[in-house]
Fold each of these.
Amino acid sequence: MRPIQMVDTKTQYLKIKEQVDEGIQRVLDSAAYINGSPVKDFASKLSSYLNVKHVITCGNGTDALQIAMMALGLEPGDEVITPSFTYVATTEVVALLKLQPVFVEVDKETFNIDPAAIEAAITPKTKAIVPVHLYGQAANMEEIMAIAQRHNLFVIEDNAQAIGCNYTLADGTVKKAGTIGTIGTTSFYPSKNLGAYGDGGAIFTNDDALAEKLQMIANHGQKVRYYHEMVGCNSRLDSIQAAVLNVKLDHLDQYIAARQKAAAFYDAAFKGSDKITVPKTASFTDHVYHQYTVILNDVDRDGLSKYLASRQIPSMIYYPVPAHRQRMFSDFGGSNYNLPVTDWLTERVISLPMHTELDEEQLQYISDQLLQFVQQ
C-alpha cells in the first residue's frame, strides 16, 4: 500500500506533469512573470466555468476577502456577521479593516452558518454577511440572500473550500457556490480542490462597476498606470501559478468526482457505527469534500489521533479554537459570545485523509483502523 497522505499533491501532479511543465516553461520562455497571458486566460476560463461575469485574480484567499470588503466601502465600526467555526482568515480581515466582527452559530449537522442566527444578530450597524462554505458544501445561500435583501446588506461568500460546488435554488436553477452573493472569494492554496503550487486567490462578481473597483484595489488603486484613484493594495496571481491553474481547472470536475467517491466509501464504512457521525449534505447543495470531517460521539479524540498516527494514518483537527475564543479578538468582545454548538463541534470533530489520489486499499485501511479504535 502506498503511504497515506492527508493531501497528496505530488501524486496528483505526476498525472498532469507534462501539461504543467509545458505551461510553466512557456512562462519562463516569455519572461512575463507578472500579468502574463496565463493570468488573463485563467480568469476568463474560470469565469466561464463558474458562469460569472467577472473573475479578478489576486495573491491569496485572505487578500480576496480584504479586497472585497474594501470595495464595498465598509467603514470602521460597521458590523460584519460571520461564523466563528471557520479558519481565522475569514474573520481576521474584518478586524484588520477595523470593522466589528459579529460571530454567530453554525448548523450542527452541516457546519455552515445558521441563517436564523444571522437574522437574530442584525443591528442598525450591520452592513455585511460573510457565509463560509465550509469543508466543501454551500451554506443556505437562498435564505441568506433573502435576509440580506430585507435588511439591505452585502453578502461576501467565502468559497475557499467549495470551488466547483453546485447550489440548487428553489426554482431548480443551479449556480456555482461563490457566484450567488454580492461578491465571492476563493483561495488557490496548494491543498485546495483547485490548488496552485504556491499562493493565489480570486474574487467573483456579476456587478460591472464593482468588478472595476475590485480590480483597481488589487492593483494599487489604479485603472491607468501611475494614476491612483483610491487606496488599494498590491495583490496579484503570478503567471506561473496561473499556468498551473489553467491545467488543473480542466480536471476540476474529475477531482471533485474522485473526492465524492472517497467520501461515499467512508460513509458506507461508518454507516453502522454509533460512535461516528458522517458529514451531512444539505438538500440544496452538493458536496465537493475539501475535507471529510466526522463528529465523534463519546470517543477520545486525542487518543484516536495518536492511534491513527501510530498506524501511519494522518488526521487533522481543524479549528480546535473557534474565532470568538482567539486572543486576537479579545478587544472585539470575543469572550462575550455564547456559541454552544460551535464549542460542541470544536471538541468533537476530526478530519480524515481526503484528496483525489486515495485508492480503495487506503480507504479500507483507514476505515478499518478508525472503527477498530472506536469500537474497543
Amino acid sequence: MNLTLRKRRGGAPGKIDTGTLLSLKGLNVLGVNPPVRDFAFMDLWSKPLGLLYILQTLRADNEVSLLDCVAFAACGEKSFGRSKIKKTEIEKPEVYRGIPRRYHHFGITGGDIKKYIAEMPAPDVILVTSAMTYWYPGVRWAIERLSEIFPDVPILLGGIYASLMPEHAALLGADYIVCGRCEPAAPYPAMDLYKAPGYGVVMTSFGCPFSCRYCASGVLWPRYHRRPLDAVLKEIDFQASLGARDFAFYDDALLLDKEDLFYPLCREVRDRYRGALRLHTPNGLHVRQIDARCADILFETGFKTIRLSLESIDPRVAHDSSSKVAAKEYASAVKALLAAGYAPADCETYILAGLPGQDIGSVRESIMFVRECGGVPKLAEFSPIPGTPYFEDAARLLPELRTEPLLQNNSVYCSYFSKSIAPGVLQELKDLARGNAG
C-alpha cells in the first residue's frame, strides 16, 4: 500500500494531486460513480468519463474495477442506447421541505452495493467521482456505505463537485480530496468495465475557448485543448468493438475549427462504419459554425440528436454568452439543417431561463423566435455554478449558495430560492416551449 494513501482517522481529509493519483502502482483500485439524489434524473448519455479515463490509465500498473451506482441500476431501455434508471422515493433534505415535488434516489441501493462488491477483488483504494454540486447527497451516501464495507480502505473523492467546492466536499467523509484536473493519457475510457455498454462516449477536445458567464468549463479546464484525430478514432473504434452503436460527443466546442478536426473525423467515421453508428450532441453545437456544408456533413455522418445553443435573443444575455451566435445566424443554421434532411423536431434549441436580472419577456420572445425559425425550443433553467461570474451575482442576493450546494439545483433554484420566476410563470414558459400554449 502506498504510504501516502493510508486510511485517515479523524480530522480534515488530506489532499493529493492528479499526478500522485496516476502514479499508484500494484493496487486493486475500485472506481465508484455514486447514485443521484434529486427530483428528476434521466440518462442523457451520462457516463463518469473522467473516472473512466483515470481507470484506464491506472490499468498499466494496477488492477481496476468499476461500481457505477447509476448504470448498474438500469431497469429498461430508452432510445439510442440509453436506459431507464431505477428510482426510490426518499425523504427530502430539509432545505427542500417546502417544495411540492417528490425526491428520489436514482441508482442501486445498499444491498445492491454488497452484491456487486462481492464479485470484485477487495480494493486497496477507492476512487469516488462526483458530478453536479447539488448531487452531493448521493456522494455522501456512497462514501458512508463504502466506509461500512471497507473500514480500513482509503477513499479518494474527485470530480466536478469536488473541484468546484472542495471545502464542502471535505465534509462528506472521504480520506482524501483529489485536487486539480488532468488531461487523459489513455487513448480511450475504460468502457469495457461495463458488461454491455449501450452507447459510447467521445471527446475530441477538453475545455472551451469561450467564456460564458454562466458556464464552468473554463474553471474546470483552464486550457482549451484539441485531441489528435487518431486518438479520437481509437476511442470510437474501441467502444464500437464492445458493441456500442450510439455515440455521444461530450465536447463544449465540437465544431470549432471544423475543417481541421471535425470534418476529417466525420470522413473517417463514414468510411469505417458506413452508416452503422448513430451520433449525438447533447451539450449543444455552436450555431455560428453550421452552414449548408456543415449541415450536410452532420446528416451524412449519422448525427441523429442535434442540440443547438442559442440561449437568448436578448442582446445582454447574448453578450454574456460570449456573443457566439446572433439571431440571424441561428435562423440560417436551422434553415441549413432542415435543407440537409433534419426535421424540425431534430433541431432542439437551448433557451436559458432564470439568469440573474433576466427579463422574462425576453425568454418568451426567444422561445417564439426559435419556433418561427423552424426549430424546437428546449428550456434550460439556470443553475448558479461556483466559480462563474453569474454565481457571484446570484450569491450576492442569496449568500447561502456558497455553503449549501442543494440551493444550486437548476430544477428549483429559479422558482423557490432566487424567486426570479414564479412557479406558475415557469410552467407557462415550459408549456410555450412544448407548443402547448400560445
Amino acid sequence: MKGKISDVVLVVDDSPESLGMLNVALNTQGYTALVALNGLQALAIIEKVEPDVILLDAVMPEMDGFETCRRLKALLPNTPIIFMTGLTDIEDVVKGFEAGGIDYVTKPISPDEVIARIKTHVQTAKQALSAQDALDHAGKNVFCVSNKGLLSWATPYVHEFIDQISNSDQIPWATLAPILEKWLSSDHQKNLVIKNFSEAVTIFYERQQEDMHLLSIVRTKQEKSPLDLQQALPVTKRESEVLYWVSYGKTSWEISQILTMSPRTVNKHLEQIYKKLGVENRTSAAAISIRILDVE
C-alpha cells in the first residue's frame, strides 16, 4: 500500500544543477522533495510515495518528459504535473498539455516562480479532490464548469455517462461548452435539455461559487408515442394509436373522439390487437403496451 506524506514534491530532471537548486528552495519552503533522474526512477518512486505535485523536465534521455507524463498520469490522474522546459516552440508546450501537464515554467528556473505555481496547484488539487470525494461518496451526478462552460471537474459517474452517450464524438465536453456557456449567460434557472448525443439529457443548476458553476445531469425521460408501439409490436399504425390510448385507460368512446372514428371501429381494431398480441382482453393488451411506454 502506498504511503502518503503531506506536501511532497517529486522533481524529475536529469540536470544536477536544477535538482540541487530546487531541492534547497523546496526544503526552505517546508516541502518534502523527492528526486528522480529519469522517468523510470519517477515511476518507481510513486509506487512507494504519492506526491502532491510533480515537477517534470520535458527533455530527458531514454524516456522523454512527455512519455513520462503520460505514464505518471495513468497512475496518478489527480496529481498536477508542471513541466520545466527550455523549449520555446508553442507546439512543445501544447504537447506537454496534451500529455497531461497542467502548467509549465521555462528554464532557467526561477525558484520563487516555481514555489508560487506549486502552492497554487497543490491547493487547487486538494480542494477539487475534497469536493469530488464528498460528492462521489454521496453518489451525486454532478460536475463543475466555468463561465465559458469549460469543464473544471466531474465525478467518475458523469465522465462514464458522457462517454456512454457521446458515441463517435471524441470531444463531448468541447461540444457541450458553448451550449452551457449560452445557458449560463441567460436564464439558467430553467433546466437545460441537451439532444446532441445518443440520448437526451437534462442539466440542472445547483449553485455558484465565485466564477464556477456546479451542475447536475440526468437522463431526460422521453415521452413515448404510438410509433414506439408499432415498432415493438406486430400492429398497424392505426392499431398502435388505439392501443396507445388504451394504455392511458381511455374507453372506446373516448378513443373514438380522440382519433375521430366510431366506437365500433375502435372495437374492431381492438379485436385485431388481441389476436396479434395473443391476449384475450383490454387489460392484458394494456399491460403489454404499458411496459413499452413506461406509463406511470
Amino acid sequence: MISELHPNRGMGVLVGGALTVWCFVFSAALVWRGVTQPVDLPAVGSHVAATMFFGLGCLFAYWTYSCLTMRYYLDRNGLTIHWGDIRQLIPMDRIQKLVPGRELPNPKITGVSWLGHHVGHGEAGDLGNVLFYATHRSNDELLYVVTEQQAYAISVDDEVRFAEELQGHQQLGQVVSLPQVTERHFVSSLPFWHDPLAQLLALGAVLASAVTLGYVFHQYPGLPESIPFPFASLGFGEKRELLSIPVTGLGLLAVNLVLGFALHAVDRAVGYLLFLAAIGSQITLLAAAIITLN
C-alpha cells in the first residue's frame, strides 16, 4: 500500500504566484517604457531589465508549480519526495530515525525559500546539512527524516501518524532495493544544466547580441534622417532601417538558443555549433552596423 501525503502548500503557492505575476507585470512595464521612449542607449537598459525580470518570472513560475506539486510517497520500499521535475529516493532500510522540528533550532536555508515554501540546503542543529523539501512556517511543522548519508526535512500534518505508517511499512519489508539518489526528469534532466561550456557559449551569444543592440541604439540619436547603406542597392535610406540589424540579431539569437538548447541533449557538438553560430551571427551584424555608420 502506498501512502500519498501532501504538505500544506496554500501559502507557498500564494506567495510564489504573487512574485511571478509581479515579475511579469514589471517586465511588461519595462518593455512598454523601452518602446515608447526615444531610440537611444537608455532604452537598451529598459529592454535588458525587462528580459531579466521575464526570466526571473519564469523561474518563479516553475518554483511555484513545483510547490503546488510537492508531495511525498511512502511505501514498503521507502520514501519518495516529489518537487517539480525532481525526485528524492530514500530507501526504507536507510531511514534511521525521525526528529520533530521543534526539537532543533531554526534552520538556515539556502536555495528556493519564501514564506510557505523552502527547498534547498540548510543547517539544523546536530543534524548538520539537511536537504529541505518543506512548506513550513514554523519549526513545529517540520519533520526530519535522518539517514546515514543525508537528512531530509519535510512537512507533514500529523507526525505521529507518519511515524506509525513508516514503522508499518518497515515491518512489511522491502520488495525492491532502491538507491538513495536524486532523480531529475524532463527539463531539469537536460545535460545543458551540467555543461559549463554550453552555458558559457549561450551567455556569450546573449552578451554579443546586447553589444550589437547597444551600439546601434547609442549611435542612432545622432544620425541624420538619411544615411548611406554600403550593402544596399540604393546608396541611401532612412535611418530607422538601421534598426533591422538588432531586430534581426534578436531573432537569430532566439532561434539558435532554442535549437541549441534542444539539440544539445541529443548531440553536444551540434549544440555547441548552434551556440557558436549565434555568437557568429551577432558579430557579423555588429560588423555590418559599424561599417554602415563609419
